[in-house]
Amino acid sequence: MGRLFVIEGVDGAGKNTLARRLVSAWERDGLDVVRVGFPRYDRSIHADLAAEALHGEHGDTSGSVHAMALLFALDRKDAAGEIRDLLSCNDIVLLDRYVASNAAYTAARLEQSADGEAVEWIRALEFERFGVPVPDVQMLLDVPVALAAERAAARESADAARTRDAYERDGSLQSRTSAVYGALAASSWMSPWQVVTAEVDPDRLAAELANQPSGELKVTP
Ligand code: TMP
Ligand code: MG
Prior knowledge:
Layout: E1 3-8, H1 15-28, E2 33-37, H2 45-54, H3 65-88, E3 92-96, H4 99-109, H5 117-129, E4 137-141, H6 145-158, H7 171-186, E5 193-196, H8 202-211
Parallel strand pairs: 1-3, 1-4, 2-3, 4-5
Helix pairs in contact: 1-8, 2-3, 3-4, 4-5, 4-7
The structure holds thymidine-5'-phosphate (TMP) and magnesium ion.
EC number: 2.7.4.9
Protein name: Thymidylate kinase
Pfam families: Thymidylate_kin (PF02223)
């Protein structure tokens, strides 16, 4: 049975780059690794509807915090079987965003903290009711919100197809999301967490994740 690792962070944190580096390191060590990103754009109708809503379509959908969270959650519900299959035939399944994204953004939109009702609603909905697999380790890529915002803006000017969505334009939401993420990590929400910075050595992080039993991880960023 493979291990389920997750990378979390605000928009523009650099999750994609960290994920690529971790996968290369694990593959160099001969491990079978597969990477899945949420929302699963072009594969999940729920993910596509959520993205369209965040770009102004579908009426007042994006205005509803809970409707948005349900769309993201339904994408994962549909993926649960696939993730279990991938875990059964790989050493590592690496997820770029997962349930904690829904917990952090939903709580942040509602101006709640990590121990509020929204986080508990997401936990009960996704892990209990939908039965999505629980991660072995969640990583928080913790970068200054201003730097992440700069990256999201730079992506937009470099690529017309990547116009910033409603969440990416909302600096205050990104700051609150970052705070909720920090608290989820501090409380070991649903798994042990590793908080890493942009300066983390991906080879060392990959080795420590792969070699140590979960729950006993020690990584110095
Ligand atoms: P993306 O930026 O990774 O493409 O995701 C789109 C936005 O949706 C991003 O701001 C994070 C947010 N989001 C949630 O609110 N809940 C979720 O479950 C996921 C996967 C993303
Ligand atoms: Mg984004």
